[in-house]
User: What shape does this take?
Amino acid sequence: MSAATTHDAHHDDHHHHGPDPGVLRWVFTTNHKDIGTLYLVFSFLMLLLGGVLALGIRAELWSPGLQFVDPDFFNQLTTMHALIMVFGAIMPATVGFANWMIPMMIGAPDMALPRMNNWSFWLLPFAFALLLATFFMEGGAPAAGWTLYPPLVLQGGANLPFAIFAIHLMGISSVMGSINIIVTILNMRAPGMTLLKMPLFVWTWLITAFLLVAAMPVFAGAVTMLLTDKFFGTSFFSAAGGGDPVLFQHIFWFFGHPEVYIMILPSFGIVSQVLPTFSRKPLFGYESMVYATASIAFLSFIVWAHHMFTVGMPLAGELFFMYTTMLIAVPTGVKVFNWAATMWRGSLTFETPMLYAIAFVILFTIGGFSGLMLAIVPSDFQYHDTYFVVAHFHYVLVTGALFGIFAGVFYWLPKWTGNMYDERLGKWHFWLSTIFVNILFFPQHFLGLAGMPRRIPDYAVQFADWNMVSSIGGFGFGLTQLLFAWIVLKCCRGGKQATSEVWDGSDGLEWTLPSPAPYHTFETPPAVR
Amino acid sequence: MGEDRGEAERKRRSNVRLALVIGIVAVGFYGLMFVTGWLRW
Assistant: This one.
C-alpha cells in the first residue's frame, strides 16, 4: 500500500463556498462529509436507544422471576434491540465511516452519486420511525426475534407490515449506499491509486458493498413473501398451504450470515489502518489481507445452514455446512496473524485507538473461537438456542464490530474536527468499556454451557449468580457510553489543535489534508506515487 | 475547459451506467427469491 502524494490541499478550497447555513444544510446536503456525519450521529442515537432496550432485558434478568416486564414485552425488547443495533447502529456507523473516509482515502472529490447518497441516508429516519412506532400499537412491537421466523411472526399484532416496510426501506438505503461505494471506488480513484494501493479500509468496504448488494435483496424477498403469506393468501412458508416454514430459515440465513460479515468487515478495515499507524510499520501481508477478506466474503455465502443444524437436515448437509464454517477460520486466522505480525517489533504506543484495536484483535478472536465450537454439529445440538450463542455473537459484534468503530472514531476524530480529543478521558472510556463488556458477556458462556436458554424473561435459580454479574456489566457498559458522547462533544467544541498528520505514524492521503478536513477536498486529483 | 467538462460528463455517465448495472443485479436477486419460494411451494 502506498499513498504518498504531491497534492497541495490549498488548491481545493479557494474557489468554493462552504456549507449552507442552518438546518437545511443537513436536509439537502450532498457533501460526503456532511452525510458521513449524519450517519454517525444517527447510528449513535440508535446505539443509545438499542442500549436502553438491552438494559431493560438485563434489568429483567437481574434475578429469577418476573420483575419489571411481562414476557411478551420482554420478547419485544429482545427483537427490537437486535433490529435496532444491527440495522440502526452498527451498519449506519460503518456507512458513516465509508462516506467520510473513502473519498479522502482514494483522492476523490466526493462520492460518485451525491444526490443518491443524500437519499440513502434520509430513508433511514423514516424507516426507524415506522419500526419504533410499533411499540405504541395494539399488540406492541415485533416479538418473534430479529430472525422473524414464521409461523410465529405471522401470529403477531398489527406490527408486521410496519416492520416489513421498515426493513424494505433500510434495504433500499443499504443497496443504494453500496452502489455508491462500489462506483466511487471503481471509478473515482486518483491517478496512480491502483486497486492494490488502496488502503485496506477501502478494500474491506468494497467487498462489504458487494455482500450488501447480494444479501439485502434476499432478505427483502423473504419478508415480502411473509407479507403476502399474511395478507394476500399465499403459502410460501405455511405447511398447511403446501409451503415450507424451513424455507424461510434457509432464505433468512442466506442473507443473515453474510450480514454478520457486512457488520464486521469494515471494522477489520479500520483495525488494519490503526495497527500500522501506532506500530509505526506498514501493515504486514497487505495483499494476503485483501485475499483473506475476499475469501471470507465468498465463504460467508456457503455456510448459512450452520444457524439451523437442529431443524433436521441430511447428514451430508450438516457435514458440508460444518466444514465450510470451519474453513472460514483459515482466512480469519491469516488476518489475526497479520495484525499480530504488524505489531511485532514495532515502535508501539498505546493511544486510545490502538488500545481499542488491540482489544478488538483479542476479544474478536474469543468470539471467533466460540464460533468454531458452535460450528461442530454435535456440539451445536447442545449449545443451540442457549446463552452460549448470545455470548458468542456479542463478542463478535460488540467487542468486534463496535470496538472497531470506537477505534475508528478516536483515530479519525482529530481529522474530522481539527481538535485532539481528551486522551485521558479516551483511556478511561476504553478501560471502563473493556472491563464492563467482559463482565457483561463472558459469564454468558457459563450460563449457556449450563443450559440457560436464550430469549426468556425468567430462569431457574441455578443461573441467578452469573445473571446478576452479567447485568452489573451491562449497566456499567451502558453508562460508560455516556462518557463517549461527552468525549466526542468536548472534542467538537475545542481542544488542542490537531496537525495534518495527527498521528506520528500515519500514512495515507487523508493525512495530507489539513485538520479539520476542508468542506471540499481533492477537487484536483492528487498524484499517487 | 471544454475538454474538462467533456471528461466530467463522460465520468458522470460512466458512474450512472455502473450504478444501473449493480442496481439491476440487486433487483434480480430480489426476484430470484420469489422464484425460489414458488418452486418450493
